[in-house]
Amino acid sequence: MTSTLKPIVLMYHGTPTAPPITDYSLRASLFKHHLTYLKTNGWHLANVGKLMQFQNSPSKTIVLTFDDGYADNFENAFLPLIENGMKATWFITTDCISKYAQWMGSPSEQTKMLSADQIREMSDAGMEIGSHTCSHPDLSQLSFKQQLEELTRSKQLLEDLLQKPVTGFAYPFGRYNEDTLKAVRAAGYKWACSTRSGWFKKEDDPLLIRRVTVFSGDTSSILARKLSFAVNDVSLTKLATYYLQRLKTKLTNKQ
Ligand SMILES: [Zn+2]
Fold first, then answer.
1. For residue 170, how far is its CA from the centre of ligand 1 (angstroms)?
2. Per-residue b/e over 177-200, b at no fewer than 16 CB within 10 Å?
């Protein structure tokens, strides 16, 4: 398998100690394996803001992003990152700070969210904090005015809390429309992450940064494949199809 050196952004959610209640969370023990893998294979961890500044980013540059702001990220992601001298980016749903992710069903240990003190401590330790709206709505279903409100209010709250500019954003559920992009710009964000998979530089628009999703079953070897292909589905049948397609293209180009 050929390895790639292109920069890539990954999307994580919760990092519980117990088995995850959703496919989007990754057990703490597996997350530690990911960090070990990245370290031993020479990947450099950046944050999104840094990645945006690079003309040519150093080879093997990766950004780990965490959506929603789950409380278990503090112990199981933030502290291990700090221990390894690594950085990451968090997108906070501001109405849920110190509460529960209300869109995830009844309150439980795994839907508990970070507190304001924890978010401040993470920011002070060099973690990048962006907004994920106030209430985690599907923005594409809201009016422009409502979207702007979600975007502006969450940005202001985080800036008041952290005493620094907040210029990054991630779309809840990966949902947006034309009005969303206008509202993100009008609210003063410089960049935004989507949930479409692909390499970091796949889109020229800084408001459509692509990310590869990490799922609950992603072992280090699955992570390795994701870093090589920048797709969410790295099952062997999918990869076989990918190679066949490439071979076909090569043969066609030769004719
Ligand atoms: Zn979310």
1. 8
2. eebbbebbeebebbbbbbbebbeb
Task: Tell me which amino acid residue 31 is.
Answer: F
12-21, 30-39, 167-176, 227-236: least confidently modelled range: 227-236
Q: What is the pTM of this model?
A: 0.92
Rg of the chain over Cα atoms, rounded to whole angstroms, equals: 18
State which H helix or E strand residue 31 sits in.
helix 28-40
Distance 42 CA to ligand 1 centre (A): 29
Per-residue pLDDT tens digits for 40-66: 999 999 999 999 988 788 889 999 999
**Was domain 8-254 assigned CATH 3.20.20.370?**
yes
CA 240 to ligand 1 centroid distance, Å: 32
Neighbours of 98 (CB within 10 A): 13
Strand partners, 130: 91
**C-alpha atoms less than 13 angstroms from C-alpha of 192 in its C-beta half-sphere:** 26
221-242 residue pLDDT tens: 999 999 998 989 888 777 777 7
For residue 212, report the distance from its CA to the centre of ligand 1, in Å: 14
Whether the Cβ atoms of residue 212 and residue 11 lie closer than 8 Å to each other: yes
